Amino acid sequence: MAQVLTQNSRPLSLRSWPSKTMAELSTAAHDAASAHKLREMYVPPKQSNFRVAAVLRFVRADGTQGIIKAVNAEPHDANIRGAICAERAALCQFQRDEADGGARVTRVVCVTDAPDPIYPGPCCREFLRGTCDGSVEVIASGSRDPSTWEMQPLAELLPLPSVYCGLCRDTMLSRGEALSTKVAVPLDEHLASAYRAAVAHAKRQQRQSVVFPLLFAAAVRFEDGRLHTVAELKGIEYGCTVDAVSLLMPEMLRCREEGGASPVCIVQADQYGVAHAPFAAARSLLAEHGFGDVLVSAHGEDGTWSDALSVTASLPHASHTTMFD
Description:
The structure is a single chain. By secondary structure, the chain is an alpha+beta fold. The chain is built from eight helices and twelve strands. The protein has helices spanning 22-41, 86-97, 122-129, 154-157, 169-179, 189-203, 244-257, 280-288; strands at residues 4-5, 52-59, 65-71, 104-112, 137-141, 149-153, 216-222, 227-231, 263-270, 275-276, 295-296, 309-310. The strands form two sheets. Strands 1-6-5-4-2-3 form a six-stranded mixed β-sheet, with helices on both faces. Helix 3 runs antiparallel to helix 8 (280-288). The protein is globular. It starts with a strand and ends in a 15-residue tail after the last strand.
């Protein structure tokens, strides 16, 4: 059996995962080995020259289990934004073939060409969190020693998930309407001013509701008290949508380049007044481009505010975000 490693590379015992049997840990080792075998047998994508393979294990309503395997793919042109991650490719197959029959995901394995383990990227974490329970095991393994791996529950990898996570459109709208009577302005002055600005701007975006009825805007507050607010730009092809927090970054970068005030906090909100942490892509961009100390917060399912987190803290176990350091 492969040695199981935690984030700090100490052996993982059954005491660490008391609900796991030796048989379950053995299947985890098998799934990791299977993912590495898949990674090693296909030609790397032409743009990144970096291979990622995923194995998704699920259990059906009748108790039988199955696995789905997938790899990453990239467009053969200069627009790298169209790349498809292995984990999301596997989950798409699961949704097509198994989800409607009552199957549920129990484990996601991610292996890469990197020497050390890398957990799924932020976009995959968010995509998985919208379909899978937070207790799903996420295993990461690198190429230096494919027989070793790390494990974290999915919920640990994406703090502050959206209160609309896992819901269909109509249910999202119903929840937003219900929360609109419960949510309040945060007590912190910086967060409060950004929250008010974001909510007001979101309510002015009715024209975009023809694409999707939830409307988002975000505001950043700088140290000098200045606010900058933008709305999400929705695309009829959903993948073309640019989230509001990502659209704050040009102004944040401009201020930094010109020696202006530093950003203190960011609040993203919808037209119901429900605050959301930055979506996954924005969290990653902020962390990768030097804004990891900016504070973010969000409403929970009961309408109360979460404790503010730094952007970096909102992306735990994300070693890839240090590449520009």
